[in-house]
Amino acid sequence: MRARLRAGEPAAFAELFDSYSRGVYNHAFRLTADWSTAEDVMATTFMEAWRLRDRIDAEGGSLRPWLLGIATNTARNQIRGNRGYRRAAVATAAAVLPVPDHADEVTNQIDDQRRLAATLRALGALRRTEREVVALCLGEGLDYESAAKALGIPVGTVASRLSRARRKLRTLTKAELEEHDDAAMAGPPVVSGRVPRAPRTRSTDGSEKVRGRWEAGAAGRQIPGDRINTVRPAQEGNR
């Protein structure tokens, strides 16, 4: 394939995209924490690969490390510094993921989402250089030599950065999960020792109605997330 790519054969480039596009996309997400940005990084990576095809070595193994190296450089230009990554990570972690309506799957789905959110926030506390070796070695499974080639740094540097990043990630992810659990157990905020009640409105016949589950002045409109059971009037039920 290398020779065909160097020669600019479109079919060879299509094979390259089919083989590695998913991996490049996943790698880009780990570096940017944003699905939309990851798509842009993936597209730019393959455009750059086509532009730089004449630099491909005639001999060698998989082109995956080369592509991931291009993706890493592209992602650096998309999100510069940890501040940009943290913003994207927090936004992604806070996003509501769809959960199917199957009781036996809900718990696992919620737990996976919670762990993903904690990991993203923990990654945001790493240095960019540490995050890159984590994405390559832990995310994509590259060995130290391949990761070093992709990043253009010595193998020893990859090993030291990854070791340091592993220690940080274990500590930070554990802290994130514990903080989430503490917040969940704390429950709703209490003011002056009392739980706030839903506001009440008085109807024309003098009875009180609680607002909060239904919108005022919009009978029959259900607030998102609310559930009710439909009950038929007695007259209708006797028909």
Automatic annotation (TrEMBL):
Domain RNA polymerase sigma-70 region: 16-83
Family statement drawn from the similarity comment of this UniProt entry: Belongs to the sigma-70 factor family. ECF subfamily.
InterPro entries with a match to the protein in the record: RNA_pol_sigma-70-like (IPR039425), RNA_pol_sigma-70_dom (IPR014284), RNA_pol_sigma70_r2 (IPR007627), RNA_pol_sigma70_r4_t2 (IPR013249), RNA_pol_sigma_r2 (IPR013325), RNA_pol_sigma_r3/r4-like (IPR013324), WH-like_DNA-bd_sf (IPR036388)
Pfam families: Sigma70_r2, Sigma70_r4_2
Region of interest (Disordered), residue spans: 179-239
Keyword Cell membrane: no
Stated name of the protein: RNA polymerase sigma factor
Keywords, in A-Z order: Sigma factor, Transcription, Transcription regulation
Record-annotated RNA polymerase sigma factor 70 region 4 type domain positions: 119-169
Compositionally biased intervals (Basic and acidic residues): 202-214
